[in-house]
Task: inverse folding
């Protein structure tokens, strides 16, 4: 049975299946979900700060050291959809617990690495652990909160993502000021052990699919994402021959995967969900939002250094208001996401974000720190307003039994957007000698495009 809202037709959820938890049960279960989420997001943000030290200590070039970050993100993105599908079969709580355990083991391997290859492989394993957590994170929230309060749970989820992004660089700098780089991985152990204990005790049992695991589809999905990501990275860094060859291999894998998945009852790449126009539109809006955010996040440190002539310490402080704005607005919007459609809230949020980027774009190079900071905070508040309603729209447009696929696709839209934004930055830095403000203009354009698409979803989804 379906219902119609301003975002288009939406599936009604079974009242028993999605009754949610209450009281202490909800607090404990949500604490477990958020602690695991914080573990995954925080470690990704911390590692960026340590790249220069890792490059020097392991005798690697800066370009090669970047793979400490890329390996995590690419493994995470490649495994999200297969693991979301697996979670529907083994239970979302069980997969999350396994992810925390794998993340813990990989953190130890990272800390003990003696060369860049070992560290890169350990980071890839850590990315798989993070994918176990992220692929089922929102699906678990769907079973913890009742339908009428789902927006609150998703907003709280967004708040902790913002906190992880905000705390990561500061915590990383603090650790590196008193200890060597392996300690950014050792610090994961107490957090992971606490998350594992809480998850084991508090996460709810969820219904399981009895459809067998699609091994061939899983392998093709991983190959499709991985080869395409590596190939595009090569192209954006002007390595045209090998980049093109690997990209073509990735495209061929995608063609094989989509043909193979066409007749599957619960496909790993959720083509059945993407055939639902409201779901597809919400994913597209989410993708565009994260392309815009990473065009800003990746390029802004270079903009502040080259155009505004700020030092490393000041750069960190001037970027922090973005995360503060995201986290603060995610908390505020928790009371609105269940009452107003995403076609209103997310559209306004992305328009505010685009306006913030525009205000930064037109700043003179002698602007004060305050001028930069409040515009950054303004853009971050818009992004915090955009995320929870759009994430809620993705989840409520999926039918009962497909929570895993919807949760995985939500994370894919986020990570694919972040990866695409980073690739655009690499391309602009390769093409233009002074691309700092060009990246801000591109971020503004993409965010505005997402806002327009979000505003029109009530008409396009009909």
Result:
């Amino acid at each position: 049975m379906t219902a119609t809202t301003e975002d288009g037709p939406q599936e009604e959820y079974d009242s028993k299946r999605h009754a949610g938890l209450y009281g202490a049960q909800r607090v404990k279960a949500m604490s477990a979900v958020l602690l695991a989420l914080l573990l995954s997001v925080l470690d990704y943000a911390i590692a960026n700060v340590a790249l220069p030290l890792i490059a020097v200590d392991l005798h690697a070039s800066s370009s090669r050291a970047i793979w400490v970050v890329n390996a995590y993100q690419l493994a995470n993105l490649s495994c999200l959809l297969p693991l979301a599908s697996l979670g529907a079969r083994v239970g979302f709580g069980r997969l999350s617990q396994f992810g925390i355990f794998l993340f813990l083991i990989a953190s130890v391997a990272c800390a003990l690495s003696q060369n860049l290859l070992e560290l890169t492989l350990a980071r890839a394993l850590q990315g798989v652990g993070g994918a176990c957590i992220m692929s089922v994170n929102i699906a678990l929230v769907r079973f913890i909160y009742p339908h009428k309060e789902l927006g609150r749970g998703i907003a709280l989820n967004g708040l902790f993502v913002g906190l992880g992004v905000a705390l990561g660089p500061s915590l990383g700098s603090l650790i590196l000021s008193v200890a060597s780089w392996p300690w950014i991985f050792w610090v994961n152990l107490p957090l992971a052990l606490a998350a594992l204990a809480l998850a084991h005790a508090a996460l709810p049992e969820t219904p399981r699919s009895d459809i067998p695991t699609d091994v061939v589809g899983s392998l093709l999905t991983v190959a499709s994402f991985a080869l395409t990501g590596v190939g595009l990275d090569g192209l954006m860094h002007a390595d045209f021959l090998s980049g093109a060859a690997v990209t073509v291999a990735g495209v061929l894998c995608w063609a094989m995967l989509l043909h193979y998945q066409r007749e599957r009852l619960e496909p790993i790449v959720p083509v059945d969900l993407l055939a639902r126009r409201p779901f597809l539109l919400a994913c597209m809006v989410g993708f565009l939002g994260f392309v815009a955010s990473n065009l800003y996040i990746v390029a802004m440190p270079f903009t502040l250094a080259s155009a505004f002539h700020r030092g490393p310490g000041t750069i960190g402080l001037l970027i922090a208001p973005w995360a503060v704005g995201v986290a603060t607005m995610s908390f505020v919007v928790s009371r609105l996401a269940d009452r107003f459609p995403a076609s209103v809230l997310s559209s306004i949020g992305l328009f505010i974000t685009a306006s913030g980027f525009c205000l930064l774009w037109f700043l003179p190079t002698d602007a004060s720190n305050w001028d930069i900071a409040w515009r950054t905070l303004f853009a971050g508040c818009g992004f915090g307003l955009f995320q929870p309603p759009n994430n809620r729209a993705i989840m409520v447009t999926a039918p009962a039994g497909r929570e895993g696929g919807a949760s995985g696709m939500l994370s894919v839209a986020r990570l694919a957007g972040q990866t695409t934004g980073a690739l655009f930055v690499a391309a602009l830095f390769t093409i233009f000698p002074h691309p700092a403000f060009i990246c801000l203009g591109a971020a503004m354009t993409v965010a505005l495009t997402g806002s327009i698409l979000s505003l029109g979803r009530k008409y396009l989804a009909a």
Q: What stands out?
A: The radius of gyration is 21 Å. The first strand starts at residue 2 and ends at 5.
